[in-house]
Amino acid sequence: MTLQAEFDQYAEDVKKVKTRPTDQELLDLYGLYKQAIAGDINTGKPMLDMKGKAKWEAWNSRKVRPFASNEEFEATTAIVKRFEEGIGQHLHQKLLQRAKSRRNWLEDWWLDTAYLELRIPSQLNVNFGGPTAYLEHCWPAREGTQLERASMILWFTLQYWDLIRTDRLAIHKAGNMPFDMDQFRMLFCTCKVPGITKDTILNFFKTESEGPCPSHLVVMCRGRVFTFDGLCDGRILTPPELLRQLTYIKNYCEGEPEGDGVGALTTEERTRWAKAREYLISIDPANKTILETIQSSLFVLSLDDAKSYSTPENYSKLTQLALTGDPTIRWGDKSYNLLSFSDGTFGSNCDHAPYDAMVLVSHGYYVDQKLRASGGVWKGSQVVRDFSVPEELIFTVDERVRRDISLAKEQYQKSSQDLQVVSYAFTSFGKEAIKKRKLHPDTFVQLALQLAYYRLHGKPGSCYETATTRRFFHGRTETMRPCTVEVQHWCRTMLNPAATAEEKRRALHAAFNKHNKLMGEAQNGKGFDRHLLGLYLIAKEEGLPVHELYTDPLYAKSGGGGNFVLSTSLVGYTTVLGGVAPMVQHGYGFFYRIRDDRFVASCTAWKSSPETDAEALFQNITTSFHDIMHLTTLSNL
C-alpha cells in the first residue's frame, strides 16, 4: 500500500469513527498526511514545544519503509516493476525449468555462492562456534580435569556418530512434519579443501549399510598433530581407554618443543591457503597423506592450554576462545573441532559450509543430556585393552612454509583481536513467563533486539534471522527479515513519551503478528531472498548483465547481498549456544538460546567500527526484555 493509499484509507476510516481518536492515532494520521502531501520532513525538530515535537516525530517517522526516503523508495519501486514486467519473467521461467530436473534447484548454487566461492578467511568470518553448558551442572571449571572430562565427551560423541552410522538417530520433526536429515551425514568425516577460485567439500562418512567409514580421530596439541582409532576390535574405546590416549599425547607434548602449527594455514584467505597447501604437498608426498588423514578423520579434538574463566551467567571468555582461539591447534576447515580447555570447559568451532548449526545443536544437546544423566562420572569398566598409542603426524616444512604459517598467525591474530564478544545469561525470566502471555519466545527476542538497536543507534537495523527449510529435500535456510514496517512503528511508539500503554500494546501485537507470519512463510518456502538469488544466478549462467535491481542502493541497504547489519539466529530451546562474527563491518552477530527461566546470548561486533558496541547492545536488549514484559503484564492486570 502506498503512502497516499494508506492516508486515503485512514481518511475514510476517520469518517466512521464515533469517538475521538487517541493522541497517537491523530499523530499517525498527521504524519501520513504530511508525508503524502509534502514528502520527507523539511523542518528542524522543535526542542521546547512538546506538541510541535510530537508532530515533528510523527512526520519524520513516516519516511517510506525502514531504510528509504520517498525518492529512494519510488526509484526502487520503478526498478522492481521493470524487473517484474521484463527480464524477471524470462528468468523465472528458466528457474522453473531448472527445478524440473532437480529435487532441490538451490542446493548446489547455495553451497557455491554462500560458502565455496568466498575468498575471505573462513575460520573467523564464516565458521560458527560456541561454549558448552556443562559448567551449569556436572562440571564447573576446575583445574586438572581436562583430560578425564575430554575422554567422557569423546565417548558420548562417538556414541552419537554410531547412532548416525547405524541409522538409529531419530528423525527431527516440527509437529507432524518430518525434517530432512541429510546434513547429519556431514557432521563427521568431513572437511573443506581450499581451491584457487573455489573450495570443495570432501565427505567420507558412510552408514553401515553403505560400507566402511573412517573411525580415526585427530588430536591437536601445542602445534602438533596426532591420530588414533576410536575403535578397538570394532568397539568404541571407553573413557578410560580414551583417557590413556589423551594422557599419552599431553605428556608427549609437554616434553617436546611446540610443533610447527600447520593448522594456522587454514585461517588464511582461501586462495592463499590453496597455494600454500599445493606447495606443502609439492615438497613431500607424505604431507598429502597427512592432509588426507586429517580430512577423513571423524573430527578434531583440540587440547588447549587456555582457561575460559566462565560461569553460567557469563560465557564471554569461553565464547571468545571458541571463535578466536589458538589457530595452531584447530583445523578451520573441519566440520567439527571439539575444543577442550585446561580448566575442564569445552567449546566447538565448525565450518559452516557442510551443514547448519542445528546439526551441532542436536549433537551437543545429546552429549549434554547424557553427561547430566551420568553425573559426569564414568561408571563402567576400568579395563584398558591392548592397542596402539597415538601416532604423531609430522609435516615436512621448509622456510617458505614457516613464513606462510607465521604470516597466517599474524593476520589471524590481528583480525581476532578486533572481534568484541560478549555472552551473558539473562535470568529475570524466560520462555515460561513469555508463553503465559501467549507470545512466541523467539519473536519476543527478535523484537527486543530491534528495539535495542533502534534505541542505541536511532535508526532501524536491517536484520537476518535464520528460517529453516529442512521440511524440503536437502533444505537448509531461508532469510526471515525481522525489520518490518510494523516493528519500526512499534519501536517509534515505544520511544514516544506521548504514546499511551494501549498504543504501545497495539503496535507490539501488530509487530508480533507480522513477524510470525513472515517466519511461517519463510519456513514454508515462500520467502523471497533465495528466489532473488536464484534469478540472479540463472541470469549469470545465461551470460546476461547484472540487473539494476541487484545494484540498487536499497538492495544492499536493506541487507541484500549479505549486507545485514544484524546477523541473528535462534540456536534453539536447549543448553547449546553458538556465536558468529558480524556479517558487515558496522554490524553485529547475535545468536541466542531460550530456556524456561533464562535467555543466553552471544553478541559480537568489530572493535574497529566506531558505530558498534556489543556490550551496549546487549545491555539495551535486557532493557527491552523488561520493557516488553512490563507492557504485556499491564495488559493482563
From TrEMBL:
TM ranges are none
Question: Which molecular function terms from Gene Ontology are attached?
Answer: carnitine O-octanoyltransferase activity; fatty-acyl-CoA binding
Q: Which residues form the active site?
A: 352
Question: Could you tell me which residue ranges the ACB domain spans?
Answer: 3-92
Q: Which InterPro entries match?
A: Acyl-CoA-binding_protein (IPR000582), Acyl-CoA-binding_sf (IPR035984), Carn_acyl_trans (IPR000542), Carn_acyl_trans_N (IPR042572), CAT-like_dom_sf (IPR023213), Cho/carn_acyl_trans (IPR039551), Cho/carn_acyl_trans_2 (IPR042231), FERM/acyl-CoA-bd_prot_sf (IPR014352)
Q: Does the keyword Acyltransferase apply?
A: yes
Listed pathway(s): Lipid metabolism; fatty acid beta-oxidation
Cellular component terms per the entry's GO annotation = peroxisome
Q: Which domain of life is it from?
A: Eukaryota
Keyword Plastid in annotation: no
**Record field: catalytic activity:** octanoyl-CoA + (R)-carnitine = O-octanoyl-(R)-carnitine + CoA; 4,8-dimethylnonanoyl-CoA + (R)-carnitine = O-4,8-dimethylnonanoyl-(R)-carnitine + CoA
Family to which this protein belongs: Belongs to the carnitine/choline acetyltransferase family.
**PANTHER family linked to this entry:** CARNITINE O-ACYLTRANSFERASE, PEROXISOMAL CARNITINE O-OCTANOYLTRANSFERASE
User: What is the recorded name of this protein?
Assistant: Peroxisomal carnitine O-octanoyltransferase
